[in-house]
Amino acid sequence: MKLVARYTQVADDFAVPDSPSAVAAPTLLLWNDVLAQQLNIDVASAERADVFAGNLNNSDVKPVALGYSGHQFGHFSPRLGDGRAHLLGAVADQQQQLWDIQLKGAGATPFSRGGDGRCAIGPAVREYIMSEAMHALGVPTTRCLAVVASGETVYRQPPQPGAIVTRVASSHIRVGSFQYLASQGDVAGLQALADLAIARHYPEINTTGPERYLAFVAKVVEKQIALVVSWMRVGFIHGVMNTDNTLISGETIDYGPCAMMNQFDFDTVFSSIDRQGRYAFGNQPNIANWNCARLAESLIPLISDDEEQAVALLSPLINGFAEQFNHAFSQMWAQKLGLDGDQAGDKELVSELLGLLKTHKLDYTNTFDALTESQQGNSEIPPELTAWSQNWLLRTSDASYSIMRKANPKLIPRNHIIEGILQDFTQQHQSPTLNEYLHALQQPFQTQVKESWILASVDDENYQTFCGT
Question: 444: closest CA among 390, 366, 341?
């Protein structure tokens, strides 16, 4: 595996050299062969467990832990950083694009704040399944290359077997990365990081001076809008949208307390630590906007020495978030309903539907799948929607089925099935369900799906997720 160094030239305290801590008995549990081929990962099968547990490093590139700050549930922590993750470096794919390779759960780092730096097997397997499912659903996301059992116990509540997950990302530059350098007053580091981010993610920005960094903020806003719209298209609830979990690339990162919405309700919350509903399903756009504002604040020194002038230049980008989002959101609903063009009354049509979904506690995924298949005569329109559908059908066309089928999955990673697989892995390091389920999740828009996989759990209202840290 040929690695190149990343982030080491940004600032002295940004990419801190640190090596993974060896584990007792690494065993390869999951391996993403398709992704490995795309990334030209040529690690011999006999060495994969040791390499992706952090026990073996044959590269001249030294692993690092990245520093970042973060607003966690609205409260600012100036020094967070990779407390249990080591960035090995980056690899080039078949198109020569660079991808970060990071081990999560590879031991304590200088940013650990007293933690053990380890990861339990359940959260590691959850990240693997969820990130691969999201990728197949067409949602921008980090990916997982491998999960390795450590052969050690991690002391959580209760104690659990440990594991290391290998995360692949186009970069690990977060909103919190800029907050970290801004909080230190490191303007040179801010500019170096911004230029690195632009080169990596937005090379089309070719201006200089303040306009360069204003354009950067505008691009990040666009990416965050596209990401949240994708989440809401498939019913995904991130659960912990802190600024340190917001990548400026617009990829989903951190699958800790995430879940999929079953019964439709904008107020749906599953995370046990989100007691105020800050990161509820319907509040995700507001939080993305808020996070973008925190990025803009961090970049003020790059815009102008006059803070008032900088704020005046940045504010339209942040204040314009809502209008941009609403346009993208409306387009998403039009795709999910196969609407023919854009006509007066469409917003009311969507609003009435969402009200009926909530009132009758209808399953989000299955309802839109039924509406999709009804276009082909393969499914009945749910009886609760019969009256509503009379106006909807007037807005559909011969093209509606194709549009809807691309937007509406038949299969999502159901919470109760994921939990069953994680319990299997916690108890016996494997699950008889996993391989078949993963294969099905790679084709979520196909019409032939095992019946038990598309049914929501009857106990979903009592479902809770946990950070797993």
Answer: 366
Which of 72, 45, 62, 144 shows the shortest CA–CA distance to 104?
Answer: 144
Q: What is the pLDDT of residue 113?
A: 87
Beta bridge partners of 237: 259
Q: Which is nearest to 229 in space by CA: 132, 301, 334?
A: 334
SS3 at position 435: helix
Beta-carbon count within 10 A of 378 CB: 12
Using one digit for the tens of pLDDT, what is the confidence trace for 59-73? 999 999 999 999 999
Is the CB of residue 251 less than 8 Å from the CB of residue 169?
A: yes
Block residue for tokens 């995370």 = 271
Q: How far apart are CA 396 and CA 42, in angstroms?
A: 49
Q: Distance between CA atoms of 432 and 359, rounded to whole angstroms? A: 37
Show Cβ contacts of residue 79 under 8 Å, excluding neighbours closer than 6 positions: 67, 69, 111, 180
Query: Is 306 a known active-site residue?
Result: no
Neighbours of 188 (CB within 10 A): 11
Cα distance between residue 84 and residue 21, in whole Å = 10
Q: How many angstroms separate the CA atoms of 349 and 355, rounded?
A: 10
Residue among 155, 146, 102 at smallest CA distance from 125: 146
pLDDT at position 352 = 98
Residue 438, number of CB atoms within 10 A of its CB: 19
Alpha helices in 342-412 (DSSP H): 346-359, 364-374, 386-393, 400-407
**Which whole number is the average pLDDT over 176-180?**
98
Count of residues making up the chain: 469
Please name every residue paired with 106 in a beta bridge, in sequence order, or none if there are none: 118
| Candidate list 244, 254, 369, 460, residue with the active-site label | 244
pLDDT value of position 256: 92
Positive or negative, the CA dihedral 418, 420, 423, 425 is negative
The whole-model pTM stands at: 0.97
The pLDDT score that the predictor gives to residue 69 is 98
Extended strands (E) in 199-338: 236-237, 259-260
State the CB neighbour count (10 A cutoff) for residue 194: 24
CB atoms within 10 A of CB 34: 10
> Nearest 5 degrees, angle CA 324-CA 326-CA 127?
90
Mean pLDDT, range 448-469, rounded to an integer: 80
How many C-beta atoms surround the C-beta of residue 416 within 10 A?
14
User: Under 8 Å CB-to-CB from 390, ≥6 apart: which residues?
Assistant: none
Which tokens sit at 442? 């790679």
Distance CA(169)–CA(39), nearest Å, equals 11
Q: 316 pLDDT exceeds 70?
A: yes
Three-state SS sequence of 113-160: CCCCCEEEHHHHHHHHHHHHHHHHCCCCECEEEEEEEEEEEECCCCCE
